[in-house]
Amino acid sequence: MVYLKAFTHALLHAFKNLLPIVVVVAFFQLAILQQLPDNTLSMVIGLGIVAVGVALFLQGLELSIFPVGKSLSNQFARKGSVPILLAFGFAIGFSAVVAEPALIAVAQQAQEISEGRIDALTLRLLVAVSVGLVIALGVFRTLFGYPLHWFMIAGYVTVVAVTWFAPPEIVGLAYDSGGVTTNIVTVPLIAALGIGLAASIRGRNPLMDGFGLVALAVMVPMITVQLYGIYVFSSAQAAADVVSVIAADKVALSGPLKMLLDLGGMLRDVLPIILTIVFFQYVVLRKALANPARIMFGFLLVILGLYAFVVGLKLGLFPIGTSMAEQLIGLDGFVYVYLFAFMIGFATTMAEPALIAIGKQAEEAASSQINGNAIRILVAVGVAVGITIGVHRIIVGGSMHYYIIGGYTLVIILTALAPRYIVALAYDLGGVTTSEVTVPLVTALGIGLATHIEGRNVLMDGFGLIAFASIFPIVTVMSYAIISQWVSDRHTAKEVDR
């Protein structure tokens, strides 16, 4: 009965997250396009399956990964062993990202569009290892109190430098891969680890030292995926790989066997988290789990939720994004494409649960120095502007390199100017703006635009919208903090003059 009540609450929560998308799409279909797509019923069923999948997934997290992860974080923080903390940081980062639904969706899209040249599993493992290493680095930074802004400036200078040499086919995907690593699984665990460490170490500030792990987890995959792209697109073996993957994809399975194989794939995705928890709980801490039956039931819900989520993506969110792109391009001019991009970015971000959670944690850590609702609006505006600029790039056919290099150059300049208290939070907010619901829709929108605009390459131009959605919230939050600080300093100066 308790589980059923919690599931109902999670299901309502999932439908609430889908509501902004439904409202925006319905407005455009009924008021502007004045028509419904042929596969409307299939899309509606797909959205319902997505909601059920997200609800099962969230309920599974609440029963298994979240309580065990937070408990382990607190125990290791009290234990104070640097090697164990670093190893735990790596393990949590790796295992959580491997099972991230949004990353699974983007990786599958990349494999299909590149005709197998980019391997979905390789891409996910590469991103997961990157996040694991950088979470360990972030834990090290928190333990020893090094300022985050030096890490971020050096990191993004490296990102921009690698982007200059990376093949255009990989740039958008690399930045999208960084943007989708921190969502429904990773943000609560990573944020709890950072804030818990900062709160337990004397001399650390939870706002300045506790935040920042999410930002690092977004940044490093951008570098490693671009390096992977440099290797893949210059490899003589690539053509043979494409042929073998395409041949393998032609072996179609259906019915119960395919369902069992898909569920087996989901178990493979979640297995690293299970192994991480078992290893650190039983081998390192040498303690039994408090309620193993409930935890295993939670993992079962996670697997079923992931399966339903992926099925719902193919039926609902991907077709919606592609269909909206095709229909809006058919209208005179691109004004409505820009409007749709802005509205979908703003509406979905305002309903993003990870953003609401980070806003509340920031309010508590800053002792009311920061207003959570104001932060949400700033971030939503940043995402809306970012997606709109990304759509503009696809429409006009500009090079992704210049947009990204320009965007992160601006971020680096703002980092040097912004008050220190806002830097870590601003970077973290850039990493929590795109949810497991938003990412597939926005990715499908970009791919749909690139498919239907003449002269565009789907792999080179279709990806990248998530990257823009991650850059511009950092810009809006830091700009707001700089302006607020300037106004405050002027006010203080006037008071002193009096």
Report a brief summary of the structure:
The chain is mainly α and 498 residues long. The protein is built from 22 helices and no strands. The termini are far apart.
Describe it:
By secondary structure, this protein is mainly α. It has one domain (2-497). The protein has helices spanning 2-33, 40-63, 65-79, 82-98, 101-113, 120-144, 148-165, 168-179, 186-200, 206-210, 213-232, 238-249, 256-284, 292-329, 335-350, 353-365, 372-396, 400-417, 420-431, 438-452, 458-461, 465-497.
Could you outline the blueprint of secondary structure elements for this entry?
Elements: H1 2-33, H2 40-63, H3 65-79, H4 82-98, H5 101-113, H6 120-144, H7 148-165, H8 168-179, H9 186-200, H10 206-210, H11 213-232, H12 238-249, H13 256-284, H14 292-329, H15 335-350, H16 353-365, H17 372-396, H18 400-417, H19 420-431, H20 438-452, H21 458-461, H22 465-497
Helix pairs in contact: 1-2, 1-15, 2-14, 3-4, 3-9, 3-13, 4-6, 4-9, 4-13, 5-6, 6-9, 6-11, 7-11, 7-18, 8-11, 8-22, 11-19, 13-14, 14-20, 15-17, 16-17, 17-20, 17-22, 18-22, 19-22
Proportion in helices = over 70%
Q: Over all CA atoms, what is the radius of gyration?
A: 22 Å
Helical stretch count? 22
Low-confidence region ranges: 236-253
Helix-strand pattern: HHHHHHHHHHHHHHHHHHHHHH
Strand content: under 5%
* Main sheet makeup: none
What is the total number of structural domains? 1
Q: Got a strand count? A: 0
What distinguishing features does this structure have?
498 residues; mainly alpha; 22 helices
